[in-house]
Amino acid sequence: MPSNEGGGVKEIQPGVWHWTTVHEKWGITIHSLFVPDPAGGILVDPRVPAEGLEWFGSHGEPAHALLTNRHHYRDSGRFREAFGTTIHCHSAGMHEFTSGEEVEPFEHGDTLAGGIEALEVGALCPEETALLVPAAGGVLALGDSVVRENGDLSFVGDHHMGDDPEGVKRGLRRSLARILERDFRHVTFAHGDPIVDEGRERLRAFVEGA
Question: Which of 72, 126, 189, 195 gives 20 to 30 Å between its CA and that of 18?
Fold first, then answer.
């Protein structure tokens, strides 16, 4: 059974699959990725798509699930139960998993499954990570550092940024400026529709104009 209703799985670039689900409690749309790999597919911030776990039977079982931060465990446990998927989160977020979740730590700068690089964002929370996926000319998968609403990029609301929102925003700009030195074409978001082809340019315009 699917976790909830949402957008069906779509191949937004060759070898990069994207879908949305609607969170049962909060009523917000959230986004997930899947990248097939000969050694086992890789999920990013996974929820079960509308097509259900059965979809992966014909597109490659996920061997790994990568979290951009500790809050994005989402349906990882269902994938682990169904496929033996290994779940990964930055070490600074490991304290979140106290209910029997089996999660492996990584560090910023590590190269993960499928050649995906874990790039440091921080600022918003210590473990906030951008994932640089080498497929399709480069896909930058962002967690909560930048969101896209009605086509526009923004930071999350100040109420999510603790006691010093402006300091957090300065930290995010610095981190994103470093990441923009890397090569990629597309940007995906945990909260917002992907930007295909012109993702790097759009992200740069936001960071430099923010």
Answer: 126
